[in-house]
Amino acid sequence: LGFQVGKARDKYGVKYPDMYADVKTSKNKKNANIFNCTQRAHQNTLEQQPAFLTTMALCSQKYPLVAGVAGLTFCVGRLIYAAGYSTGNPKARIPGALLGGLVSMLPLMGCSTLYALEQIGVDANIIGK
Q1: 64 near 44, Cβ under 8 Å?
Q2: pLDDT for the residue 54
Q3: Which pTM value belongs to this model?
Q4: What is the DSSP string of 15-82?
Q5: What's the pLDDT at 61?
Q6: I need a surface site. Which of 39, 102, 107, 111 has the fewest CB within 10 A?
Q7: Which residues, in sequence order, are CB contacts of 55 under 8 Å at separation 6+?
Q8: From CA 118, how far away is CA 125, in angstroms rounded?
Q9: What is the DSSP letter of 128?
Q10: What pLDDT, on a 0 to 100 scale, did the predictor assign at position 43?
Q11: CA distances from 1 to 47, 55, 111, 113 (A)
């Protein structure tokens, strides 16, 4: 995604150190919006990384298959999210957000919570009962 932002900087003429294109003063407001959406997709993915990596690490300790499938789903979802968002239409990011957020993060959070509870001595084996 970082490469996409770099290519968008060149394509839409947004110079460093500016994080975003100024839509109000830009000559081409559509291009400024597309760049901003591309930048935001990258930034949002970076914001999601700590929660994803933490839950992935915890979940994989006891549920490696769930962690692997959810991790792949997260990555594919984030790519779909970025591709949709980079069109300049923020609503186009929703399918990727659902796949990369809801579908992948809920199992990771659930399994990592079960694992954490077991580590502190709580009988969390609700699956086997």
Answers
A1: no
A2: 96
A3: 0.86
A4: -TT-SS--TTT-S-HHHHHHHHHHHHHHHHHHHHHHHHHHHHHHHHHH-HHHHHHHHHHHHHHHHHHH
A5: 95
A6: 102
A7: 105, 108, 109, 111, 112
A8: 8
A9: -
A10: 94
A11: 13, 22, 28, 30
Mean pLDDT, consecutive 10-residue segments, the chain of 129 residues?
Answer: 86 85 82 92 94 96 96 96 94 95 95 92 70
Nearest to 78 by CA among 49, 50, 53: 49
Distances in Å between the Cα of 65 and the Cα atoms of 39, 61, 90, 96 are 33, 10, 33, 22
Distances (CA, A) of 94 to 1, 40, 78, 82, 89: 17, 14, 10, 10, 10
Which tokens sit at 20?
């975003």
Q: What is the pLDDT of residue 122?
A: 87
User: What tokens appear for 73 in the block?
Assistant: 């789903």
